[in-house]
Fold these 4 entries.
Entry 1:
Amino acid sequence: GNGAVQKGMPHKVYHGKTGRVYNVTAHALGVIVNKRVRGRIIPKRINIRIEHVKHSKCREDFLKRVKENERLLKEAKEAGKTVNLKRQPQPPRAAHIVKGAEKPVLLAPIPYEFVA
């Protein structure tokens, strides 16, 4: 939150948490936030002033992805092809040769010596 405004500042437990707005008043918002209490997660309703709230960026990324998927689908339909719109995990990096100034050092364990 904005530290210059002390009114309506959420408790430290709720700083940086994502929640859903359920109520709007003149100067504040009612937000449902999940709080971990021992072994369970409890949805808590807290009132926060507007200065301490900001939009989540994940929604923007989702809407951008939807727009891109619609564009790809439209282009594929015009070309008469099928296109996979599912997100894929990052593939492994391609093989490459590592070059160094010095020769690699072979590491081996020291042989065990029994001292009686």
Note: The CA atoms of residues 66 and 85 lie 10 Å apart.
Entry 2:
Amino acid sequence: MKKIYLILSICLLSLSLIGCNPKENIDPVVPPIDETDPDKELLEDKIAPILQFTQSTYRTARINQYTTDFNIFEGLQALDNLEGDISSRIEADLGDYDVTVPGEYEVFFFVQDLAGNVSNFVSKKITVVEYYFLVEKYPIFTGIIPNESAKPDKQKVFAGAYYHKVYSSKDYWLGIEAEFTLPMFDINRYNGQHDDRLPIDPSVKNLDNPSIYMGGHAWNESDVGLSLSLTVLKNGSTTIGSYAFRPFWRYITNRDYDIGGYDRANGRYYAVSNASGNNQTKNLFGNWDYLFTEYYYLPGDRLRMILYSPKPGYLQLQIQVIEKSTLPYSVQIREENGWKDPADFKSPAFSSPEHGSLTTKVEFKRVNAIDQSGNEGKPNIPTTSQVFDMVWHNTYLLRKIDGQMYRVVMNETRANFTNGPADSHFTTSGIDPVTGGETVRIHPNFN
């Protein structure tokens, strides 16, 4: 009997030990089941995404009609409460926007999340501006122009500047062009003490200011070209006086004024100021951004200047660089200040009623001048300032003859000249009958 109990005890102990084996007795840990469906959450979302500009400057844009790399979505950001950044899904309602057609456009943007919630709408105002290519050198016409206007009479002298003006007959001209080499000068009249060893002292305001420009007269007058102007120096400061020739365009119009300052963020790199108050006919002055040192032209630079009508009622200034100056004076100034090499320039097309209409006879001119600060229309102020030999290599008028555009030499058969205030202030070579060229020196103190 004792043997039976002993055997039973051993069996029970064995069973107990087997049951305590950890590898066979621990239940596996099963993670809790997440019954949330992520797709379902996104699809049932009720909160709309937010659409915004990363900077306010992206709300407007200014591009030319031949732009190919403009990103219409630049500066936009779309954020969703569940999906995060969904900027890649922004859509645009273009309306009538066409990058090839100049005009003012407003494009609207929106975005949807996966649940179909539509964001707020934002808009971008886009200005597409006209772009004109450099005017080609048209064939030179030497024949007889039927019914060409006669050579103009002498014009009266306008006080307040020393100027040599060569002006055309009034005829169906579409523009004027010329090649010239910018002259050296010696400026001696300032608003304060100056360093008289320098041709011009940029640290003091000069009161005599050289300019080389063209112009036209149809409904009213325009003066367009290069004037010695303020510049930026290598240290970032701006000169007090003039230091380099820079483009300007002065025009009188009763429409499409284009008044406004620089808007660099949106591609407007020029400013137009109004000198006529609230009058409908305004005397306007445009100039290019002074930070663009490639549009600083210096003595010895050989340039081709064109003033022409790209479409009826408008004019445009173009400057083509033929050769950079090798004069030590100009080379040194460019190197010292880190200015860029001179580059071709185009102004915006500006309003000039009746130019380019082919139904109105118009006049064009070229001018060498020493302008006198604050003295327009007043008697000339005596001065020892000078502008040395300025070479006009040629001068042509632009005209359409039998449907073809030509250059017609601007010589004394169709042009005249005026020296103000007197001939004695100038030395000229006379107008070349073949090229329309001329050499001009201004010396007001020689009587």
Note: The first strand starts at residue 50 and ends at 53.
Entry 3:
Amino acid sequence: MTATTPTPAATPKAVRTPPLAEPSGWHEVRLTVNGEPVTAQVESRLLLSDFLRDRLRLTGTHVGCEHGVCGACTVLVDGTPVRSCLTLAVQCEGAELRTVEGLARPDAPLTPVQEAFHACHGMQCGFCTPGFLMTATALTEQGERPGDTEVADALSGHLCRCTGYRNIRRALSRALDETYEVESDTATATATDAQRGE
């Protein structure tokens, strides 16, 4: 038997890591936030949550996990709930944003969703509440009452460590009942008026 000498392992070549790409710079973004037009210069990598909190001082949008899991940072972009910690500010060019501060002005009455959360004790520490309010608002504004599965799916994107969700679900159910009952009553009154020829 002949002894073979093992071949030395090839020395790995130094892998040249390319330098980190420079951000593509700054962009002017025009959008509407809570009914007010906003124009700002933003870095291309600026998250919407940071833009809202740091630049616009709208701190009601809370940042929890920074991975889009907890739902605390939910805002409405053109009426759709989005996670602001996963959305770039530049992606909102031309969009209409609504944050929890835009639900009801300090001198105005609470919205039906806010009233329901208050009446049903749908909050405890309050950290997750803005995200729940924004998703609940979207559900009450979509034009037709969502089914139980749609409501469960919408709430599944939110975490609450305090309440166990019972009061949150009760509050959302109450807000939906009030919203769609009022719309139903209005539609019935309109149909009745039409039958009478009014």
Note: The domain at 26-102 is CATH 3.10.20.30 (Ubiquitin-like (UB roll)).
Entry 4:
Amino acid sequence: MLLAASVSQAQMLCVFDIAGAQGPVMSSLREYTLSARHWGASLSLRPYTDERVAAEDFKAGQCDGVLLSGVRARQFNAFTGSIDSVGALPDYPSLKMLIHTLARPEASALMSSGAYETAGILPLGAAYLFIRDRRIDNVAKMAGKRLAVLEHDRAQIRMAERIGAQAVTADISTFAGKFNNGVVDVAVAPGVAYMPLEMYKGVGTKGVVVKLPVAQLTLQLILRKTAFPEKFGQQSRAYFHAQFDTALATIREAEDSILYFFPPPDGDHEKYRDMMREARITLTAEGIYDRRMMALMKKVRCKQDSAHAECSDGRE
């Protein structure tokens, strides 16, 4: 009876959209609420421009669900929160294959973690290195340079340590300003940040955006399971999966607007990939990333490129 009573009431979603109530994320979620009515939920949306506050309000019971970056969502579901791990998915077809797999009913048990359930995953875009001075053209030259890292992501801090960079903590609302104003030399961001956050100012005419995905960033909808009908999460995941191509079109349009968007120098691509893999293995051993997700993403990579050396070892 308690469960039935709880799901008959309107549910509140806390929604992180850096652009606020009129932003693109809020706009897409308004369409989602219309579909959710058919699944037995009456959703209200509350926008947040600070995702830390959105996460804290969700934990405090101020809302029944929250839409966050995958990195921030890791605290609620380590499995899906590990999608955004360093170098784990090299391209968008790999991410699409993964999200397709996770949207299937057979994967539903993995989408729950304690009181929480991941009820949707959307691509936010590959994360790239934004560099103010293109003479910093390889990993070795990042040693000693100031690198913006998200203060809540232990993985980014460990990566900075690994390459000998000086980690400068920031959050999603401050990292672009620090990059543009020269407080940091290097930042990691998706292409969709280039125009809205004016990161072209930091790149200028002397910088570069390295065309090599450091991670595949996502937005994830996390629900408190007892606040929703039993089958709601699966229906929601199917809905989000169906939005993948629309979201990707927006991402590609944003990436097409980037000037000075170049691949790493010849011979450095494999060095970057190997470095990211070693970091990923270490971070998994330390418990930052979920081993099950690492194994699943390796299967995706090897399905895309079975000839790669990692496909014949058992390290992930």
Note: The beta strands are 11-16, 43-48, 65-69, 112-113, 116-131, 146-150, 166-170, 186-190, 208-224, 261-262.
